[in-house]
Amino acid sequence: MSVITKGVRRFFRNRLRDIERFRQNPAEVQAEQLHYLVEHGRRTEFGREHGFADLTTVEQLRERVPITDYEDFHEQIARMRRGESNVLWPGLVRWFARSSGTTNAQSKYIPVSAAGLRDAHLRGPRDVAALFSDIYPDSKVFRGKTLTLGGSRTLERENGIMTGDLSAILLENTPSWANLRRVPKVRTALIPDFEEKVRKICREAVRHDVRSFAGVPSWNLVMMNKVLEYTGRANILEVWPNMELFVHGGVSFKPYREEYHQLIPTAAMKYMETYNASEGFFAIADDPTRDDMLLMLDYGIFYEFLPISRLDDPTAAVGVEAVRTGTNYAMIISTSSGLWRYVIGDTVEFTSLAPHRIRITGRTKHFINVFGEEVMVDNAERALLAACEATGALVAEYTVAPVFMHGRCKGAHEWVVEFRSPPSCLDEFAAALDLALQNVNSDYEAKRFRDTTLHAPVVSVVAPGTFMRWLEQHGKVGGQNKVPRLSNERTMVEEILKMGDS
């Protein structure tokens, strides 16, 4: 065992015991989180309005607080941003994470309290280190530095209130000792212009012994390819021979897996998924043999889960003690930043209940169900991976929308795809995609049976860089911005197809 890794494991020994406790006692730990949240919530305007003074059970919480979304909190958050205290969380909340909002085009301003930073946003990265050191005791990753790409907006300060990307907020609140282990410099990480930021990262980072990096797979892929251009090297191991770990999140890793294997050609490379967002830090992969993540149950977050088949029935929401595997749930959170019974917009499926592990399946508003097929993002990702494996293709970006029925013509799905390495035969790729989607989604299979409702999918190819131009046009470059994958209407697809033709 590496001496440094041994020291890291010793440092995190007590924390690993805490993690084991909620693995073994999930309902008990979640009850403690609810009690903690309500105790603090009693001192707020929201708590007084919703009877928190004598609220002691989750049943009472569900009776008194409706399931909410951003619009329900819009006015309170606006007041908090003007400097009002004790609105949704005790005291003055000084930080607000600007989110591009993948469910609509409006920017959202998510409160990030000091407690929320401590309980979740800063604890999550530390737990990544704790779990990694426990899983890989012989690792030497802690001898080197971590490269982080960060967001693309600087913090805006007004009347003591600070607004910006979550990554900028985290950089401002990261202990100085931790910054000694990361590159680039903070001022480089906060450069608003993505292209300029990447150029400076190349100049700064290649001089260091980088052994890990973290962030969104799509944007990090852009950065790593820029590093190769800058250095003239063939792969990342020629730049950083000790590279060992990529901690990723934000979008599914499946479409990018093969590209990273080519970029970093070593079996020793490790990939660790995390699930974090402006609203909190939720899950970490804790078993390299599995394709899921451990739900972190002691982060100042109380969880509820609503089956997507019953989104219009708030009485169907359940806690961790009543979830089932194989069901798609909308995730509902109450947090120590003042979000109460808040629908985050993601859908998850439990893959294990002992301990509670999840896999992100999509978004509550990002799916296709025009024809009763109920295709989720997870279905699309798995089908796309199978089609790439069958044809040797590599996909850079994609999105899917319906082709609506008209006259006697039946419907279909149109996949707009930007290939990094195209298949030799597009028809074979489309057929493999269709078959794989039928294999992972029985509703889609039923609609495709003898072309009952759906014709075979249409695959439309756009030129390299088209999706990047679309993101730039919509102000979504860098950070945790991502391409919406599935839609029930065609606005985005038509915009991208038009760009691809220009």
Shape: globular
Q: How many β strands by DSSP? A: 18
Q: What separation lies between the terminal Cα atoms? A: 56 Å
Radius of gyration: 23 Å
Low-confidence stretches: none
Instruction: Provide the helix percentage.
Output: 25-40%
Summarize the biggest pleated sheet.
Answer: 11 strands, mixed
Mean pLDDT: 90
Strand order of the largest sheet: 6-3-7-8-9-10-11-15-14-13-12
Task: Provide the structure class.
Answer: alpha/beta
> Number of helix segments?
19
What percent strand? 15-25%
Describe the structure.
It is a single chain. A hairpin with an 8-residue loop joins strand 10 (280-284) and strand 11. With 502 residues, the protein is of the alpha/beta class. The chain contains 19 helices and 18 strands. It has helices at residues 3-11, 13-24, 26-41, 45-49, 58-64, 70-81, 114-121, 123-135, 166-173, 176-179, 186-189, 194-205, 217-231, 257-263, 377-391, 426-440, 442-448, 466-473, 491-501; strands spanning 95-99, 108-112, 145-148, 156-158, 161-164, 182-183, 210-215, 245-248, 270-277, 280-284, 293-295, 301-307, 328-335, 342-353, 356-363, 394-403, 412-421, 458-461. The strands form three sheets. An eleven-stranded mixed β-sheet has the order 6-3-7-8-9-10-11-15-14-13-12, with helices on both faces. It has a four-stranded mixed β-sheet with strand order 2-1-5-4. Strands 16-17-18 form a three-stranded mixed β-sheet, with helices on both faces. Helices cover 37% and strands 22% of the residues.
